[in-house]
Amino acid sequence: MRMNSTTKANILVVDDDPQILKLIQAVLEEGGYTVFTADDGVEAIELLELQKSIDVVITDIMMPRKEGVGLIRSIRRNDKKMKIIAMTSLTDSEAVLNTAMAFGADATFKKPFDPRDLINKVDSLIS
Questions:
Q1: What's the pTM value of the predicted model, to 2 decimals?
Q2: Most CB atoms closer than 10 Å: which of 2, 4, 21, 28?
Q3: H or E stretch including 71?
């Protein structure tokens, strides 16, 4: 990933749906962010260990191998300051997202989402 003078922050997006990953990556890059992606929580943890410059993690809740709440718990064990946004498309999304908040997420959103809302949420966390 190349950094340029207009880059606001480095964001890791974690989702097992390749279309969602591409959509969020495009929205965030258009908003001036550098974006890294991972397919699940295991890959995300590996990337976080290699890439120390990540400022925000946006994670889906339901994923194979290591789901979102497990990822949030793992991040919080090592990094209390990392900004984390949890997202889900589950029907019972409110309960799931409340659980994510209880385990350390800083913000949440439901899929599908308005791209402007995502950018606003990320901007508010890093400002």
A1: 0.92
A2: 28
A3: helix 68-78
